[in-house]
Design brief:
alpha/beta, Rossmann fold, 2 domains
Amino acid sequence: MNVYLAVVESLADWEIGYLTAELNSRRYFADPGMDFNLLKVGITSDDVRSMGGVVYTPDLTFDAIGLQQDDVLVLPGSNLWDQPQTRPVLELARNALDRGHRVAAICGATVGLASVGALNTRRHTSDDLESLKQSCPEYSGESWYRKEAAVRGDNLITASGLAPLEFSYEVLKMLKVWRPETAKAWFRLHKTRQERWYHELVASMS
């Protein structure tokens, strides 16, 4: 299984922090030795710099992706999703969704997907519906919009940029790399900060 993480200039670090930390560390994986890769994908092979100044070196470029059934393409927020250089990436994501592959997008990446018509017939959310309608002439999916922190609809996950925890939770559930009880306890611990969920999380690993 591969998770392909799109790394583009001005990537929003906080929107993927929970997710990348848990996938890279494998600390709560039901099977830490499973065949799993977290791969950074770039428009080119050049380094990119996030909003936080972190430098990401792509492991491969988008034209080299060969999505398999269990893979997921993750699109973090960035200031570039409305720019011409990211259009091929968004079209790749739209075509992947049409073929039944899995895509997860947060914040500005959801606007990018709307701009290529990928959200017109799929349940989704974004930062703001009115903004989505105004900025994306190709968007006609208002009836599919849900005013929620994160939404999973079949093979697509979308989230507001204010919901990195909910976004990560939905992606982790989709991947099934954790036991269900682990995912629940992890989410509730971070959401509520209640001690009981820490003990639930530890117990889920035994």
